[in-house]
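If you are new to this repository, start here. Below is one unmodified record pulled from the training split, so you can see the exact layout before writing a loader.
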Amino acid sequence: MQPQGAGLTVSVSGTNLSTTVDGSGQFTLNNVPAGDVTLQFTGPNTNASVTISGVASGQQLQITVTVSGSSASLDSEHGGGNNSSVQLEGLIGSIDLTARTIVVNGTTVSVPATASITHGSTTLQLSDLQVGQRVHVKGTNQSGTVVATQVMLQDQSPAPPTTQQADVSGTLAAAPTGTCPAVTFTVGSDTVTTTASTVFKGGTCADLAAGVKVDVKGTTSSGSTSSVTTSGTTITATQVSMDLPQPQETSVKGAIAAAPTGTCPAVTFSVAGSTVTTTASTSFQGGTCATLAAGTEVQVDGTVSGSTITATKVSIETETTQVQGTLTAAPTGTCPAVSFVVGASTVTTSASTTFQGGACSDLAAGVKVSAQGTASGSTLAATTVSIQKSGQGGDGDGGGN
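And here is the target side for that same chain:
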């Protein structure tokens, strides 16, 4: 406890309690009554008082008071111990918005988002405070750190934060953080934040990603930029214009290298060294998504990004093929959708297959058939199956295309 001027008399107003300030600037008062306590400092050219509010019975307080002539100010008040009450008053020496701390009379004060910051009846933000302003801080001692619950700005007419227009352009080095529409990203050394009021042009908030070129217009609050520890400038964006890469039309043709992965209609396959993806919007000609298989000849039209093509149309190139021969085993499946082997080909039938000379149920081991349809690799999707029953004339065994 260090009032200025050793030898001053310190008394508690309304009581007989008094003491003197020693040569090191310290004093001690015992048995001080509970409640609001007013200390009176008297001495040569000195007659000043300061009030300490809410002193509890038996409470031990450490205070720092500055006395000059007829004025005295309470600079700090510590109750001692963890979770004890603390009060500070003095000028702000520095502000760190990122860490949410201020330094008052050499003491670092943590100002959580839940702390009240006011000037009279006006509620302020931490970014509204400026170095050199006088504040009164109320808080608690948390393991040696002062954590503020209330910060009261004492200046009579604090200068309002200066809002300036900002315009920056550049490429995003990393994807934004946050959830649209409220995200944060970096352009150069500047931090940009967007809100529900931000207007996006040339794309949407969801299009923001590493590598996207942007032009940002907005505002930056700089009450006293030299007093705030930040990286560059923080800009609240009113408009974000994006220069998104335009998709390029492309077309590839060839055989599918391997069976597609995924589930129709969204599958992925490779053609002529390019990766192709299909979507619910992809149109198919000459077959369906389910027709796609290793070896299927296709022409893909779509848009390319890198080596990946998003298909708008997949044309399946089919040729009419005929095979004939004798079934070596009974078909599998249930009529009319069955599968059987003729020579080196697997023949599949469906509800649209036409049977001639017999019915689907007549297919069995030893039955001679001639199947015509479209081939994909070694599989023939039959449009017509001609059955030669026992005793009927016809061609000999064999197969051909």
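Two things worth knowing about this chain: The chain has five domains: 9-78, 85-153, 163-243, 248-317, 320-388. Residues 222-231, 394-401 have pLDDT under 50 and may be disordered.
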